[in-house]
């Protein structure tokens, strides 16, 4: 039923799909759908959650490399590859969305990206805070993936993914030789603040009290803006 619903959604071009059509394609009766999912919306929510679980299954087995920026690149490429290999599920996951509502697995994917960015910040590699870089990278990654799966295969320019990836990374990642870029000015203090914030997030044995950590985090956040 999950596969059937995802396929019908992808082929509907935005038009509503019926419970009967889902059941017919899946080869089941309507009571079976209601028994497992409650109603059609419950099934569609399950489709999105199932798609995210399939997406995360591979990501959870990947071993981090020595360079978190390379891992972010690999994560971007895996995201686009998953979309191209599973367009029906991807269209439900990121195309058929309800405002203010998302599967828990979507938050898991975002947390993985934030963890990589926090590692990069701890190495002094980021020009902006991880919390700012994450949504920017994800929004661009999703936009590229949706653009590619909605383009006929013969007309797809896959290289656009690499160009977009490198452009967005250039806006949030420091090069080894260039000074930090922050709000149009070169600001080494901002980079140091971003790195220290990341280190504090990772340090579970700090000698500071929780209220002291919170105050220091606030100061560092203000310095990094």
Structure description:
By secondary structure, the chain is mainly alpha-helical. The chain is built from 11 helices and 2 strands, in the order H-H-H-H-H-H-H-H-H-E-E-H-H. Strands 1-2 form a two-stranded antiparallel ribbon. A hairpin with a 2-residue loop joins strand 1 and strand 2. The chain is elongated and about 60 Å long. About 4% of the residues have low confidence.
Low-confidence stretches: 177-186
- The tally of helices reads 11
Given helix and strand content, the structural type is: mainly alpha
How many beta-strand runs? 2
Shape: elongated
Question: Which percent range fits the helix content?
Answer: 55-70%
Return the string of H and E elements. HHHHHHHHHEEHH
Strand order of the largest sheet: 1-2
Task: Output mean pLDDT.
Answer: 81
Could you give a short account of the major beta sheet? 2 strands, antiparallel
Whole-number radius of gyration?
21 Å
Distance between the termini: 48 Å
Residue share in β-strands:
under 5%
Which features characterize this protein?
two-stranded antiparallel sheet; single chain; 225 residues; 11 helices; elongated; mainly alpha
């Amino acid at each position: 039923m999950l596969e059937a619903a995802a396929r019908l959604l992808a082929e509907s071009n935005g038009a509503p799909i019926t419970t009967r059509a889902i059941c017919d394609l899946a080869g089941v009766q309507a009571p079976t759908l209601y028994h497992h999912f409650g109603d059609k919306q419950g099934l569609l929510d399950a489709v999105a959650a199932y798609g995210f679980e399939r997406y995360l299954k591979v990501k959870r087995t990947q071993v981090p490399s020595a360079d978190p920026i390379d891992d972010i690149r690999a994560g971007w490429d895996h995201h686009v590859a998953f979309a191209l290999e599973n367009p029906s599920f991807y269209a439900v996951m990121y195309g058929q969305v309800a405002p203010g509502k998302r599967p828990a697995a979507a938050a898991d994917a975002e947390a993985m990206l934030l963890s990589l960015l926090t590692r990069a910040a701890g190495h002094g590699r980021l020009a902006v805070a991880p919390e700012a870089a994450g949504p920017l990278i994800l929004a661009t990654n999703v936009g590229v993936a949706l653009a590619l799966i909605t383009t006929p295969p013969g007309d797809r320019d896959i290289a656009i993914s690499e160009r977009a990836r490198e452009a967005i990374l250039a806006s949030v990642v420091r090069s080894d030789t260039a000074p930090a870029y922050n709000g149009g000015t070169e600001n080494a203090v901002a980079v140091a603040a971003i790195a220290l914030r990341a280190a504090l997030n990772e340090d579970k044995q700090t000698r500071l009290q929780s209220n002291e950590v919170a105050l220091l985090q606030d100061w560092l956040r203000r310095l990094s803006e």
